[in-house]
C-alpha cells in the first residue's frame, strides 16, 4: 500500500513539475514577444522621425525653413549645455545649406565662464564661415553665461517676462572655522606652495586671499563685459555701470536697456526674421538615434548616469 501511495505522490510531483515548466516556457515566450514588439515599435518610431526630418529638407519646399538648436539648463562640463555637446550640433546646423538661417533657443541661468566663452566664440566663427544669420530666442531665463552665449547672435529676442542680463561673475563658498573649534577639531594643512590653501573653508578668511580672488573674477567679468560691448555695439542704451553690475531684468525692461532687440517667441521670430514657419531641429534631444537608444535602454531597464562636476566659479 505504501508503494502505491509513494508512486501516486511521485506522479503528482511529476505533473506539477511539468505544469510549472510549461508555465515558465509560456512566460518566457510572451516576454520575448513583448520585447520584440516593443523593439519593432521603437524602430518604427525611429524611421518615422527620420522620415519627417528628410521631408523638412526637401528642395522643392518653397517656404523653406531654419536650422534650430535648443540649449537648456546649466552650462557646465558633462552637461547637455556644454562645449563638448553643443559644438558638434552647432556645426551641423550651420552646415545645412538649405536652411535660411540658424535660430538658437536658450533657456538657462548661466554656468561656467569657460564653457560659455567657448560656445560664444564658436558661434562667431561659424557665422563667418557659413555666412549665416543667427537669431537667439530666450525663454524663461537668458541670464549670465547664457546671455554671454546670446551676444554672439545677430539679434536677440525674449519674452516680456524672460529673466535677462545678470552680466557678472560670482564665486561662492562657506566658512567652518568657528564650527570646527566648537567640535574640538584641529585643522592641519600642509602645502608645497604658500598660497595653495587659498579659500580653505576650514581656515580663517585671509584679506590677501579675498583680494586675489577678486582680481581673478574681475578679469573674468571684464572679458564678459567686452563680449557684450562687442556683440551689442551701438545697441546698449542704459548706463554701463548698471548694465554690468550683475543685476537682471525682465525681457520688457531689457529691451529698453538695449540688451535685446525685440519681444517674441520662436514662431514670431522665424516669421519676422526669415519669413518661414518651419524648422529643422538639430538639438541633441531631437536626435532620432539617441531617442532609439534611450527608449530601448528604458525598456531593458538600463541605468543612465549623469556626471556631476564641482564649479569654482560661474557666470
Keywords summarizing the entry:
flat, 12% strand, eight-stranded mixed β-sheet, 49% helix, single chain, alpha/beta, 315 residues
Describe the overall structure.
This protein is α/β, with parallel strands linked by helices and 315 residues long. It has helices at residues 2-56, 83-94, 113-130, 145-150, 177-182, 207-231, 240-243, 251-257, 266-274, 288-299; strands at residues 66-72, 102-108, 134-143, 155-158, 163-165, 248-249, 262-263, 279-281. Helix content is 49%, strand content 12%. Strands 1, 2, 3, 4, 5, 6, 7 and 8 form an eight-stranded mixed β-sheet that branches. Helix 1 packs antiparallel against helix 10 (288-299) and helix 2 (83-94) runs parallel beside helix 3 (113-130). The longest helix has 55 residues, at 2-56. The radius of gyration is 29 Å and the shape is flat. The N and C termini lie far apart (89 Å).
